[in-house]
UniProtKB/TrEMBL annotation:
Gene3D superfamilies: 2.60.40.1080, Galactose-binding domain-like (2.60.120.260), Glycosyl hydrolase domain, family 43 (2.115.10.20). Keywords: Signal. This is BIG2 domain-containing protein. The keyword Iron does not apply. InterPro entries: Galactose-bd-like_sf, Glyco_hydro_beta-prop_sf, Invasin/intimin_cell_adhesion. Residues 1-22 form the signal peptide. It comes from the Bacteria.
Amino acid sequence: MIKRLSRLIFCALLVCALSFSAIGCGNTGSGDDNPPDPPVEKLTDHVSLKILPDTDKLVHSPNPRVVENSYRYGPSMILDEEGTLHMWTSSPGRFKTQWDWIRYRSSDNGGTSWSDETIALTPTPGTDDAWSVCDPGAVKIGEYYYIGYTSCYNVYGRDNNVFVARSKNVYGPFNEKWNGQGWSTSEAQPVVYFDEAATDTPKSDAFGAGEPTFVVKDGVIYMYYTWDNNAAGEEGDNSVRVATAPADDENWPAKLEYRGVAFERGDGEAEDSGDVAYLEAYDRFIFVNVSRRYMDNCRIAVRQSADGITWDEEVSYTSTNFTKYAHNGGLSKRSDGHIRKGDPVYFAYAHAENSNATVVNWATRICKVTFKVSEKVETDRGITRLQKVPSQATTTGSAPQSVFVSDPYVRIRMGKPAHQLRIKLLDNNMETRVLSASEIANIEFYGYDTSIVDISESGLVTAKKTGMTHVYMKYGGDDRLSDNFIVYVGEGAFTEAIGSNAAGLDALTDSDVDTVYNTQANGEKWMGLQTADGKNAPLKGVHLYSQIEAGFYPATFKVQVRSAGGEWTDTEKWSYHFLSEPSTSTAIVPVTIVFDETISANGVRIVGAGATETTAIGLSGMEAFADEDEISVTSVRAMRSEIRLHIGDTSQLKLYVRYRFQFQYEIYFREQGVTYGNYDTSVISVGENGLVTAKAKGETTITADWNGTQIPVRVIVD
C-alpha cells in the first residue's frame, strides 16, 4: 500500500511537470532534442489480456465483387456515453492516385451489426499527404474529434510522416488538417517528420514514422507513434515513441514535445502497430498490439507503463480464441483514450487467409476482451484458434459511401471548350457508377477561386485565367458525401486534340474526359498539336499523366513525334525532369520529359519500347509545352527550418519541392541536385546527401541549395 501511494504521488508530480514543460518545441522529428526524464518507479504487478470465448464477430469480409484490395485494417475505436462503438479503418482509396482512404462506421450493439460505411478522411491533392491517408488513431479533445494518420511524400510508400486532421462530427469529413502553423482545408503538413536516412539511394526502404495513437490525461496529450528505419535486409531502429502536448491549446501540434522511445519492438517477433489506452481500474497505461503479424502462431501482446513515458520491459501474451495471420489491431476506449471501470472492451484486427501478406484481401474481426493484473507476467499457449472467416461480404447495399471526381487533378487550358467533370458514386456494394447530369445537379461546388474557373451546376469547368485552385464538393447537402480536387489552368499555346493514324490530322476533335491515349479499334491514339495558324508546333517537352483507371507504364517506352507528312519518329535526346522516371510501380506519378532541343511536330505519342510492349500506352492526359520555363516550381522548403540535436545525434535534412501542377517531391540526395554548405564545421558535419551529425555545442546555419534556390536551416546543438 505504501509503495502504491508513493507511486501515485510521484506520477502526480510528474504530470504537473509534463504540463509545464510541453510547450514550444514545434513539430517533432527523431526527437533526441531533450534530456531523459528521471527514472519512474516500476509497477510491481503485471497486466494481461484475455479474449472472451464466443464473442468473435465479423466486421468486414473481402467483397466477392472486388478481385483484389478489399480490406479494412488498423481499426481505431471510440466507445461513447451511449455505448455506441465508432470505428475508423484504413481502406482502399481512389484507384492509383490515392492508395488509402479512412472509412467510418458505427455499431450500437457491440459489433453485432454495423452502419453503412462512409468516407471520413481522404488526401488533400497537391499537399504533403496527397498520396494516401492510413493507420487512423482517433481521440476527442474539446469540441473536435482528431484523427492522427500516416502519409508520405514519395511514390514508394516509404519515409512516412505523421499527420493530424480534425472535425466536429464523429463521422467527419476530417477536412481540416494541420498545416504547420494552424488548421487548413487546403494544406497538410506533418506533426512528426521522419528525419533519418535508412539507405544511400533516393528510393528508401524505411517505413518511417506513423501509426499514431492517443491518450489524454490530466490535461496532457500523449501521442504514440511507430518509428522504423529498417532498410531491406538490415537491422535498424524499430520502436514506439512518445510526444506530449498541452490539451488546452487548440494548436497543440505546434507544442508537441518529444519525450523519448517508449520501447523497442522486435526481437524477431514481427511486432505490429498497436493502440495505447489508460486503464483506470489499474491506474496504468497499456499498449496492445499483434505480435508475429501474418503468422499462423500470431498473438496479442500487452505492455504497461506507470506514467506513459517509461514502459516496463516485460510483455504478456495471449493467443487463445485468437485467429491466425492477424495484423494491425486496435482497442475500444473512451474519447479521451481511457478505459473506465465497467466498460465493455473490444479488440478489432485485420487478418489474411494465409501468411502471404502481399495479397491484400483481408477480413476484419472484433472480439470482447478483459484485463487482469497478477504478480507474474502471463502468457498462454493459444490452445483454441478461431476458424476461417466466412466468405460473405459484410458491407452491402446501394447506400452511397462516397461521391468523388475520377481524377483529383483536373488540367484544362485557356481558350479550350469547357471541361465536363466525370463524377462517380461508390456504394456499399463497392460498385461505382458515373453520375448522370441530373444527379450532378445535386452537387454543390464551393471553396474555389472564381477568378480562375467557373463551375456550372452540371459540372462544366470553364477556364477564366491561368492558375490553380482547390475545389470542394458535396452531394445532396450531405457532408459525408464530399470530395476535393484541384483544377489547374494552363496557357492555351497549342490546339490539342486526340487523333488516330487512320483519321489524320484534319479529323482531330477536341478531347474530352473519356478519351485516353491508348490503343483503340480505330488505331493508336495520339495528341495532335497545331499553332493558331495551323502549322507544326514548337515542342520542347511533355507532361505525362497516367490513365487513372487502366494499366501502368510499361517497363520501357519511347516518345515519338509526328511530322507534317504523318510519319512517326523516335525522339533520340530527351531526359526525365527531376528523377520522376516512370515504371510499373509509379503509374500515379506525373512525368515530365524535356527534349534537348526544340522539335517541330504536329503530334506526339508514347509507345512501349519492349519486345512485347510496342503499342501506345494508357494516359489520361499529356500536356505539351514549347518553353522549358513551363516546368515551374511554385515552392521549395525544408522539412524543418530548425533542428535541435545533442552531441553525437544525427538528423536527415530534406527539401520538399512543389511544382506548378501541384505535385510534390522529397529530395535530399546529391544526384538530385542538392548541395549543402556555409555551416560551422566545428559544430556539425553534413554528409553529401544531407545527413547532419552534431559534433559540439553551438549554433550554425546550413544552406541547402537546389538548382540555385537556397534554403537556410538552423541547427542548435545542446
